[in-house]
Amino acid sequence: MHPTRQELLTEWALHEFYPSNAIISMMPANLPPEYLKAEERYLRARTLEEKILATQELIRLAPKHKGTEKLLKVLKRRLSKLREELRRREMRRVGGGPSFHVKKEGVAQVALVGVPNSGKSTLLRQLTGAQPEVADYPFTTREPVPGMMQFEDVQVQLVEIPAIIEGSSLGRGLGARPLSAARNADAIALVVDASNEPLRQMETLLSELWAAGVRLNRFAGEVVDGFEEHSESLVDRRAVIVATKGDLPGAEEGFELLCGKYGERFPAVLVSPVAGSGPTEVKRLIFESLGLVRVYTKRPDEPPSERPLVLPKGSTILDVARAVHKDIARGLKFAKVWGSARFPGQQVPRDYVLQDKDIVELHV
User: Fold this and answer.
1) pLDDT surpassing 80 at residue 364
2) What is the CATH T-level fold of the domain 109-289, as seen in this structure?
3) Cβ contacts of residue 205 below 8 Å, gap of 6+?
């Protein structure tokens, strides 16, 4: 005999460490039949993967209004716990396998994320000179491969992440560890083969990153029926699209499709030795995605420093002074700026917001 819905609800309540009457009181009376069926599928699930999928379905099916706020909060908390449990299981399973942690170097770390054979290894070679294995079969790269990209006078660390497939967040392919490595980067370059169903590749990448708690350009939550999950496990990352294999048939059309659907959200570039952009344009796009500015300090009557201070966009004169020395920040009176100021050497206040490549002369 199958358990009744009341028995299943009680089991759910005990499993979630809530009193059964508390859970039942959260259940709105107007839940659709599809939701109730998904609820029973969750309660009969026996694996972490089945529970995660069922919980995602419950969040998708639950009506979004004031009466379901408590229920949705419980579901999202449960989903976060299940994902964390899956990540811990993945780490235990790999045991003494290769580490997916890459120590950050340069001004920032950018993860190259793509499906199998999307061109990540070739792109890493072109931009950094690193020598990852390149082959036409899936999962050639089985652990993160770093390389240093020189962009003008700064270095950015690029890390090729092992391929993401549908279900990576549930342990398929190489599991959730590649997603964790991408999550730890400062920004993400979504590497998409423009000649081979690029929209489907993007859907896979966005869905799997969202499932790992990575929200890209504050839009990744919209991948799931426009309902953005609010959770402490979410991280925001800047992202760009690097479309590869631009010299293959259909690539330019594929790139147009990408721009048509995602162009407002993600800056994009097509890499091609024949048409499109080359390494210089790609490097600039990646650096600009980081939201950084380079500032060159100088002393009076001396040339500016050759190596810049690299600060977040929106940084002020006072932030520059703090980066130089705390005593200078305390005694700062004003500064002169060359670059974004209305005229060269203009005197500006401490809260003046700087732009990329500004030259700053601090006065204490």
Assistant:
1) yes
2) Rossmann fold (3.40.50)
3) 113, 114, 115, 164, 190, 192
CA Rg value for the chain: 25
CB 48, CB 82: distance < 8 Å:
yes
Confidence of residue 18 (pLDDT cuts 50, 70, 90): very low
Which of 188, 183, 189, 153 lies closest to 168 in space, CA to CA? 183
CA distance 216 to 110: 13
- pLDDT of residue 90 exceeding 90: no
Q: Which residues pair with 188 in a beta bridge?
A: 111, 239
pLDDT over 70 percentage in the chain: 81
CA trace torsion 197, 199, 202, 204 (10° rounding)? -70
Q: What is the DSSP code (8-state) at residue 106?
A: B
User: What value does the mean pLDDT take over residues 254-266?
Assistant: 95
In the chain the first and final C-alpha atoms are separated, in Å, by 82
Q: What are phi and psi of 113, to 5 degrees?
A: -120, 130
Comparison of pLDDT for 10 and 209, the residue scoring more: 209
Q: With the C-alpha atoms ordered 12, 18, 22, 27, is the resulting torsion angle positive or negative?
A: negative
The verdict on domain 292-363 having CATH code 3.20.20.70 is no
What would the two tokens of residue 292 be?
């950084």
Average pLDDT over residues 207-230: 65
Q: How confident is the model at residue 216 (pLDDT cuts 50, 70, 90)?
A: very high
Single pTM value for the model: 0.75
Distances (CA, A) of 15 to 117, 254, 343: 42, 47, 67
Phi-psi map region of 173: left, alpha, beta (phi>0 left; psi -120 to 50 alpha): left
| CA 7 from centre of chain | 41
Q: Where are the domains of the chain?
A: 5-94, 109-289, 292-363
Place of tokens 């601090």: 362
